[in-house]
UniProtKB/TrEMBL annotation:
InterPro entries: CHASE3, HATPase_C_sf, HATPase_dom, His_kinase_dom, HisK_dim/P_dom, HisK_dim/P_sf, PAS, PAS-like_dom_sf. Residues 369-594 form the Histidine kinase domain. Keywords: Coiled coil, Kinase, Membrane, Phosphoprotein, Transferase, Transmembrane, Transmembrane helix. It catalyses: ATP + protein L-histidine = ADP + protein N-phospho-L-histidine. SMART domains: HATPase_c, HisKA. Residues 244-297 form the PAS domain. This is histidine kinase. The chain crosses the membrane at residues 12-32, 179-205. Its EC number is 2.7.13.3. Pfam families: CHASE3, HATPase_c, HisKA, PAS_3.
Length: 594
């Protein structure tokens, strides 16, 4: 409801005050004796007024927090949390002011302590409600308990505030009674009453003028706030409505009309009118939900379709709650959301999921073909080639011998390629079971797997203490095998390979462009070697499937090993990077979340 100031009434009031000033000035010469009493009473009045104002501000801040919390729980829109976030500062400010105002009143000090404890409990209740309404930690039973407990706390807070107000009112009443007794002691006091009245009128006039200006400012802010709310509804594609069940009167916000395809106030909102917009498929469901509102005292989320005048179908989600005001009137407050975009996006996501499931099935089919159908003819090729004896080869021409040799090499390379592809596929399709293990144990297993080539190249591997993490054991072991094997493969001729493996704990904030900020701590594991290195311009492409920096004749391999490393690290929500200087070695860095 918008407040509209009555300027004519205000001007008349000012004229009356001016006349009263002249009348009271005529009598003021005989009332000096009671000026001090008036001043004392005025201080008491102002003291009580200030306490009442601060208590009202305190209650207003808590109500704002409660409203913001409910709005956030209903909409999940973080904008609703703004009053909740700032409410603590408002509460603390009012509490400090109240503590100063009640310094000389031990009883009020105790009441203030009780009130502050209740407010602290209420904010704890707010936090629990936000916690158990979050989709990640949602718990309906606990949420209901905390919401109900919060309501009880609000009643206790109101009772405590009312008690403090009553004490101040009683104190003020007693002081005024004493003052009235004093002023009735002599006829002179009756005359002095005019001066007291003058002083109060002047103070009241001054205060009314200030309040008048303040109210004009507040009214302006209210108009701005209303405009912002209307804009928020338009931007957020939601609307609000009120249904007075006693009078059966319904009020729509402007955006409610727009969501239905009309200009604001284009028609009289009634229940039957709204049902005309509901799609025939959902009419019965929406009508039944309306009938159950009084019994259930709330409107749970209802999903339905509406048809606009231009025959466009939109998808809606509605919710509401039944409230009873002080006069006993039952009012249903509700919110409608236009979720058409989200609905269409969900349909698209479902289609993508179906395509992904189809892709996974095709991948599983490929694994079967690669592991059985492709390897079977390959084994036969290798078997038949191996059966060609040296005597048979002796009678063959040199070109035929070369062809057979190429067949043997190609078959071996084909087998390695199929095995690597199966290994890469396994990182995607195999069940990812995380187990907390020491990475040093997995590294020892990897070294055992590479023992032959390590001994052949007389490689020196230096390892620091690695962390104990929840990982997929066989994948991390494969990661170590691939990284160490890569360093051994590309070691420099006539140089003993040296591989240094180190670990340290780092903050994600130190690598803002690289690491996920939601995880604060990561373990940084570096693999440093003195091998032949590579051009730094290829530090990203080396992790791409089938990407090779050397020809297959110079160095064996399929270009899948580092792609497997990246996939393994991705499965662990980590990150891997590489850096190198040609002929000076390479550094592979793995970041794993704590």
């Amino acid at each position: 409801m918008k407040w509209i100031p009555n300027f004519n009434s205000s001007n008349s009031l000012r004229v009356i005050f001016v006349i009263a000033v002249f009348i009271l000035l005529f009598l003021s010469s005989i009332a000096y004796k009671h000026n001090k009493d008036l001043d004392e009473s005025s201080k008491v009045v102002m003291h009580t007024y200030e306490i009442n104002i601060q208590l009202e501000r305190l209650m207003s801040a808590i109500k704002d927090a409660e409203t913001g919390q409910r709005g956030y729980i209903i909409t999940r829109n973080a904008r609703f949390l703004t009053p909740y976030i700032y409410s603590r500062d408002k509460v603390n400010t009012s509490f400090i002011t109240l503590k100063k105002l009640t310094t000389d009143n031990p009883k009020q000090q105790k009441n203030l302590e009780k009130l502050f404890k209740l407010i602290i409990q209420r904010f704890v209740s707010f936090e629990n409600c936000l916690k158990y309404s979050d989709p990640k930690t949602y718990d309906k039973r606990k949420l209901d308990n905390h919401m109900f407990g919060g309501r009880i706390l609000m009643e206790n807070i109101r009772f405590q505030v009312d008690e403090m107000n009553d004490i101040e009112k009683n104190y003020l009443a007693k002081r005024l009674k004493i003052y009235a007794a004093e002023i009735s002691l002599s006829p002179l006091f009756s005359i002095s009453l005019f001066l007291v009245a003058l002083l109060f009128i002047l103070l009241a006039y001054r205060q009314i003028s200030r309040d008048f200006e303040r109210l004009k400012i507040y009214n302006k802010k209210l108009l701005i706030s209303s405009g912002l709310m209307a804009e928020s509804e338009s931007i957020g594609k939601f609307s609000t409505w009120q249904w007075d069940l006693d009078s059966d009167k319904i009020d729509y916000s402007d955006n409610q009309y727009r969501l239905l395809g009309y200009e604001p106030n284009a028609f009289v909102p009634v229940k039957e009118t709204f049902l005309e917009f509901v799609h025939p498929d959902d009419k019965e469901k929406v009508a039944k939900s309306m009938e159950n509102i009084v019994e259930k005292k709330q409107l749970p989320f209802v999903y339905y379709k509406i048809t606009r005048p231009d025959y466009e179908i939109r998808y809606f989600k509605s919710t509401g709650k039944l409230l009873t005001d002080q006069q006993g009137s039952k009012i249903l407050l509700g919110i409608n959301f236009d979720i058409t975009d989200e609905h269409l996006l969900n349909i698209e996501l479902q289609e993508r999921n179906r395509e992904l499931e189809k892709s996974n099935k095709e991948l599983a089919s490929f694994n079967h073909v690669a592991s059985h159908d492709l390897q079977e003819p390959l084994r036969k090729i290798q078997t038949f080639v191996s059966r060609i004896s040296e005597a048979d080869k002796a009678v063959l021409s040199e070109s035929a011998k070369a062809y057979i040799s190429k067949i043997e090499v190609s078959a071996k390379r084909m087998r390695v390629l199929i095995d690597d592809l199966l290994l890469f596929s396994r990182t995607n399709t195999t069940k990812k079971e995380f187990i907390k293990l020491s990475l040093n144990e997995l590294l020892e297993n990897a070294e055992s797997e590479l023992a032959e080539i390590i001994e052949e190249k007389k490689a020196v591997i230096t390892v620091s203490k690695l962390p104990k993490l929840a990982v997929i054991p066989y994948q991390i072991e494969q990661l170590f095998i691939n990284l160490i094997g890569n360093s051994l493969k590309y070691s420099q001729p006539d140089t003993v390979p040296e591989i240094k493996i180190e670990s340290e704990k780092v903050n994600s904030a130190d690598y803002p462009d690289l690491l996920e900020p939601n995880v604060k701590k990561f373990h940084k594991i570096t693999f440093t070697d003195n091998g032949m290195g590579f051009d730094p311009q290829f530090k990203e492409t080396i992790f791409v499937l089938f990407q090779r920096l050397h020809s297959k004749t110079d160095y064996p391999g399929t270009g899948i090993g580092l792609a497997i490393c990246k996939k393994i690290v991705d499965n662990h929500k980590g990150h891997i990077i590489a850096d190198s200087t040609p002929n000076k070695g390479s550094v592979f860095t793995v970041f794993l979340p704590e």
